[in-house]
Amino acid sequence: MATAATPHARSPAGAERLFTRIAHELRKVYVGQDELVMSTLVALFSQGHVLIESVPGLGKTLFVRALGRVLGSAFGRIQFTADLMPSDITGSPLFDMKNQEFRFRPGPVFTQLLLADEINRSPAKTHAALLEIMQEYRVTVDGVSHKLERPFLVLATQNPIESEGTYNLPEAQLDRFMFKIRVDYPSAEEEADILKMHRQEVDFDARLAELETVTGPAEIVATTESCSQVRVDDKLIHYINTLVRLTRQWPQFHLGASPRGGIALVHGARTLAAFSGRDYAVPDDVVQIALPALRHRVVLTPEAEVEGRRVDELLEELIRSVEVPRL
Q1: Mean pLDDT within 155-179
Q2: Per-residue model confidence as pLDDT tens digits over 101-137
Q3: Going from the N-terminus, what domains does the chain have, and what CATH number goes with each?
Q4: pLDDT number for residue 108
Q5: In this structure, are residues 233 and 279 in contact, taking their beta carbons and an 8 Å threshold?
Q6: pLDDT at residue 6, rounded to an integer
Q7: pTM of the model
């Protein structure tokens, strides 16, 4: 009797199956936060990075550790502080007494999944070093370049700006992130589920070890290539272009999205389509990721801030004002 063929990683069906398996494993230890899970996986398979705005204590480290386990990828963490230096991220030359020469000692950025925790607690020159690596996928020290292995995903967290001891990330640096996600407190039902998990002593190291590793770096790279082949119709390109350009004309925005915002929408829509088993993107793919792709690329006018307007509600108004194309 013939058996059904297993979807190949390079096909949309393969991407859909892989996404489903990854999400299923993560939910065994990480409750709720569906937008974080979805956006992180879309960014991973689009070669993007994610900025997470959140107060402490909402399980971000657990999430990244679980993700590393499920993806079969190396996990690293950097705690950003006011005295953290760029060399603490990139690594530095170390003198080898035996051979009487300097050798490069790689820093914690040489990993595949990196949690950059509380990035806005360091001055600009420090997180600028990381953001350059995110763009170039290599580290340059003393004129020598060291390439990072792929996949390479940065999940950077920041405290709300009003928190004590934080620095504003400049707009040019925010623009390097594909998505910005706001992680809020769990719902009452989700928090109850978390409490039930802690009724007895929980050994999370053991729980993480029980998670199935469903993929590895080679398949992630292959699936990323598959997602990049998803078709994006010219009408959809026009729709994305209209949305992005409209942010620059919207009366309540002092600063609109750069072309990087449109690129993020194109790449994210392709990956989201592949996660749905399609080899073509549709407007709903764009709408689903529009808020995380654009919210950190626009700046409110002083008048809008005084009126208490929110970026997300204004972006939703903007999206509703644009006619959705029929493909």
Answers
A1: 79
A2: 778 888 899 999 999 998 888 888 887 788 888 888 9
A3: 12-223 (3.40.50.300), 230-321 (1.10.8.80)
A4: 92
A5: no
A6: 44
A7: 0.89
Give the model's pLDDT for residue 161. 59
